Amino acid sequence: MSGRQQASKYRLVGVACLYGYETVTVRFAVLSALKGGKVAGLYFEDFEVGQRFEHLVRRTVTETDNLLFSALTMNPAALHLDAEYSKGTPYGERVVNSVFTLGLLVGLSVYDTTYGTTLGNLGWEEVKFPRPVLIGDTLRAATTVLSKRESQSRPDSGIVVFDQRAYNQRDEEVATCRRAALMMKRPKA
User: What is the pLDDT at residue 40?
Assistant: First the structure.
């Protein structure tokens, strides 16, 4: 079974994350992968340069998302929290915290690409927000594999660089980044 077929078959596992079971589910997925079990994500060997993913999972950003994320990250910017202040800005309403937008962009990609097979993000480069995300926007994501190489320090893994892009319901690009991830290699049988 290909990694793509596994991603579809095990997509339901990803739904558990949306309802607060992420810690247990992610631990299970990573332990399963390390033991050679089935996971939804793709292994290092499964990625090909130029490969593109149009992620099926979409997410509508709520006022609660923006408020809670801004509070948890100690960001008191009126642009995110004050509806009256925001009426006087060029946007005319509150703008969603851009760090939330970046996290959501990456999160929307996980089920199809790295769920249970990543050992961690190594960094983000060229992060851009060409348009603001507003409360009520529904985001979708697309990922393209830019490069991959063997890890020099870990023979059991490799590094994959992704170009990731988020779009709103009007198909306007709202976020882009280049993300490097440390990916597990397929366990030896």
Answer: 81
Q: How far is CA 28 from CA 7, 31, 40, 79, in A?
A: 15, 5, 11, 39
Q: Are 139 and 58 in contact (CB under 8 A)?
A: yes
| The 3-state secondary structure of 104-121, one letter per residue | HHHHHHHHHHCCCCEEEE
**How far apart are the C-alpha atoms of 120 and 172, rounded to whole Å?**
29
Q: List the beta strands (DSSP E) in the chain.
A: 52-54, 59-60, 118-128, 138-150, 157-167, 173-184
DSSP-assigned letter for residue 186: P
Segments of 24-100 assigned E as strands: 52-54, 59-60
Q: What is the CATH number of the domain that holds 102?
A: 3.10.129.10
Stretches in the chain below the pLDDT threshold 50: 1-33
Decide if 86 is inside a domain: yes
C-alpha 175/C-alpha 129 separation (Å) is 4
- Contact yes or no for 137/168 (Cβ under 8 A): yes
CA–CA separation, 147 vs 181, rounded Å?
11
Q: Which domain holds residue 77?
A: 42-184
Give the amino acid at 16. A
DSSP three-state, residue 95: strand
CB 154 within 8 A of CB 81: no
Q: Establish if 10 belongs to a structural domain.
A: no
